[in-house]
Structure formats: structure tokens, C-alpha cells
Amino acid sequence: MSLRDRRRWRAPQSVAGLGEPMALWLEGTIRSWPGYAPRYGPDEETAHLVPTLAALNRGGFVTVASQPGQAGPGVDGQWWEQRAAVEGYISDCGLYERLLDVADEAGLITVTNDPVLGCYEDPVVVTTCAGEPITRFGHHLGYRDMHVQWPHISPAAFADLYTAVSLAVIAPEYGAGGERLWHVLGSLTAGNDGAYGGSTALPSRPAPVSHVAACLAPKPARSVPPRVSRSTEPRSLASYELARQEACWRCGQPPVEGTHAWDDRGDYQLLSNHTFKCANGHGWRHSTDGG
Fold first, then answer.
1. Rounded CA gap, 255 and 252, in Å?
2. What is the enclosing helix (H) or strand (E) of 3?
3. Cα–Cα distance between 125 and 81 in angstroms, integer?
4. Pure H helices in 11-141
5. Can you name the residues that pair with 79 across neighbouring β-strands?
6. For 275, which DSSP code?
7. Strand 132-137 relative to strand 109-113, pairing
8. Helix-helix angle 180-190:93-105, to 10 degrees
9. What is this structure's pTM?
10. pLDDT tens string 22-51
């Protein structure tokens, strides 16, 4: 990193202040950012995301990773799929709440990690190769990892960053359909009067409000989809399945007929029910907890 770039990153004293040099790096004015390869800009696949990402950073959401929604064969010949996604840090509770509201209204996935409250969520898969998970967004970084990712910034900015909320916003669908995420965030940053604009637009300079109060404030309950029963109709067992079963407890003959069905009695009460009959006409059944 050049001395000039290092001075620019050293100047901010808060998370909000880090947003301006990050926006300049995205736009190519600054050639390096801490924790990334020196003199290396954003990947080509994110070029069309730069205006939205720069606006988010200047609004107070300091982004550290992003990707477009894509699907297709890779250079290795395998089938790759990506969800559109972005993650970063926020210390402004008003901005944090607006981002959550907009994401929830648009049906997007959010992953929040709050080191102050000790509330952490599991990361979400955003990239697969041949159906296998490759990349996840929403990881919580510890103190040492944060220092690796953010060297050269001021102690005050690092302290603010370390206690800030890390937020990932992810499209639920893979491929180009997930690119709607950027339209949602673009409307938010532009302050349009569309479906996600208007009063939810980001301020040009975020207000210095503690995010802890917003996290503790009661939030409206989110709709939960109705539970779907996993019960099934009985099916006849094949001969190889019958051969693995125990013999009749009355006469010792192996079963010649049998059925199997799942009985869903609620969470953690999925019963596996078997019925059997031997050649002498004796019937029996047994049930086990299948999960």
C-alpha cells in the first residue's frame, strides 16, 4: 500500500468515516484497502455494482464483500451458482434498522452478528459448485482476524469497527434472479419514491446513534409459514426390507408381509411405524422415533 493510501485509511476515526475511503477504492481513486491485495481493485464481476456499493459506504454501511447473482459453468467445467450478496459493518442504529426493514419487505435474507450484545447468527451459503457449498456470508470475526483484515486504520476507527454490527444481506435465489437485491439497495441509496425508496433512503451522513438501543427495542413479529406435516401413507415393504426384520415373537417365522409409514406428531416427534405378518398369520408392529 502506498504511503498516500495508508494516510487516507488512517484518517477516519469511526466506522462511518471508513465509508468514504472504501467508496473511493471501489471507484478506483484509492488503489488499496487494508487487508486486501495491495494495488488491486474490485473483481470484474462486481463492476456494475460499484455505484450501489459506493453509495452504501458513503451512507454508513462499510462493505467488505459482495458478489452478483450468477449461474453457469466455471473454468473447471463444473456448474457454479451464486446468490447476490453483500456484507459489511454498521455502527448507526437508524441505518441498521432501515436496512433490516427494506430487506424484510423484499424477502431478502439477513445475517446479523452483534459483538456488544453477544448475539450471533449462522453464516449462509452464497456460492456452490456442483451442488456443494463453497462460500458463506455472515461470519463473525474475532479480535485477531479483525486486525488482519483492518491493519493501518486508526485505533479509534478499529475500536468502533470491532463493536459495530456486521450485517450480510443475501438474495434467497441463486442466479440472475437474485440481482433484484441490487435494485432494492439501489433504490434505498438513491432515495427514490418507489417500492423501497422514500422515507427509507439512506442519509448522506449517518447520525451517530447507538445501535444497542435499537437492537434491544421490541420488533414486530415476522410471519412464520404454516408447518407442513411429514406424515405418509403406509407403503408395502419389499422382500429385501422384510429379510432384515426380526422374526415373529410367537412362532419364530420370518415376516412375509409388512408396511411402513411416517407419523408426524409435531417437532421432534416423527415416528417410524412398521407392521408385519408371518406365514402363520401372526401380526405385530413396532414404532421408533425417527427424529
1. 9
2. helix 3-10
3. 11
4. 15-27, 50-59, 93-105
5. 73
6. E
7. unpaired
8. 140
9. 0.66
10. 999 999 999 888 877 777 778 888 889 999
